[in-house]
């Protein structure tokens, strides 16, 4: 299958050529085969007119719990600890594979319709999320959420998930997810590290999300959560740490030294009153920062464009500095940096040879005109419902009716 998108404004996310006007973008099979301003000579199976549209790499949701669409609006206006232990964990004890499949279908449909082409998931019954992902055509890295009480069972399930994914489309990968320092003992954390090393997997965890987590960890171990994770070896393998609201300067140095990615989840952190991560400071230290929605139970949607805009304005307002986190840098967090966090070296750019995961946005709308600066409009004006087409692996998986 081959597709040509013509007359489109292409936001490549490449530093040397950020935006191409009146571009032609060719796709052969699952790769970008051409990007330029001259019409290619090859014939294509399908031609899309990109007039009035903007093409960009698909968004990477670097931290979510997709099937938690089942808990949307179930527990709101609560702090994280009460929210988790009084409402969420008891509900999750009732989950069945069938429920997780249905919740995953809804979540993936929501992500594809709002521009996310790749997601980093941590939840239960990931075999069902994998089934939904294969059916709907999205790319993803799937991780069973691990706590002390289910360690052995979840390692066995990860064994099975690796087999399932190996026999699939090639769009899915597997990771391992020790949930957090307050749900995983040292033994559990070290077991996850051993498993990750044995199977060459990346680790996806929650880290330094709340002040309570920080204080409790210091009381129990005389170390911050970041220091404790380092002590337990979590950062000895590639690691993505979600939230990162309560980092000390020493914590940030640890993350930098171990090349840990921090996933910023501003909507969820604000809604749960967990605090605001020091993203400008993390960026200054050279730490890779990606963006995530978290689950629909604490967000309450999976529209990554909301996270993009909030990231672009939140830190400016807090630090009274409008030059912080320019639009281009924020857009990189949702594309290039997210791909890096998930271990992809051929994703996140519009570039020949890269995977053809991209979106087309309808810019012929009142709230996107005039378009003096395409990148600025993508960050500050676009919403998920502006997505007209979503392509993953060179196939159209969503088209707005």
Describe this structure in words.
- It contains 14 helices and 16 strands.
- It folds into 2 domains: 2-58 and 349-399, Roll (Urease, subunit C, domain 1); 59-341, TIM Barrel.
- With 401 residues, it is of the alpha/beta class.
- The strands form 3 sheets. Strands 1, 2, 3, 4, 5, 14, 15 and 16 form an 8-stranded mixed sheet that branches. A 4-stranded parallel sheet has the order 6-7-8-9. Strands 10-11-12-13 form a 4-stranded parallel sheet.
Break the fold down into its secondary structure elements and pairings:
Elements: E1 2-11, E2 19-28, E3 31-36, E4 46-49, E5 53-57, E6 59-64, H1 80-92, H2 97-113, E7 116-123, H3 126-136, E8 139-146, H4 151-166, E9 172-178, H5 186-199, E10 203-207, H6 211-221, H7 225-231, E11 239-243, H8 249-257, E12 261-264, H9 266-271, H10 279-284, E13 289-291, H11 304-319, H12 327-333, H13 336-341, E14 358-362, H14 374-380, E15 387-392, E16 395-399
Parallel strand pairs: 1-4, 1-5, 6-7, 7-8, 8-9, 10-11, 11-12, 12-13
Antiparallel strand pairs: 1-2, 2-3, 5-14, 14-15, 15-16
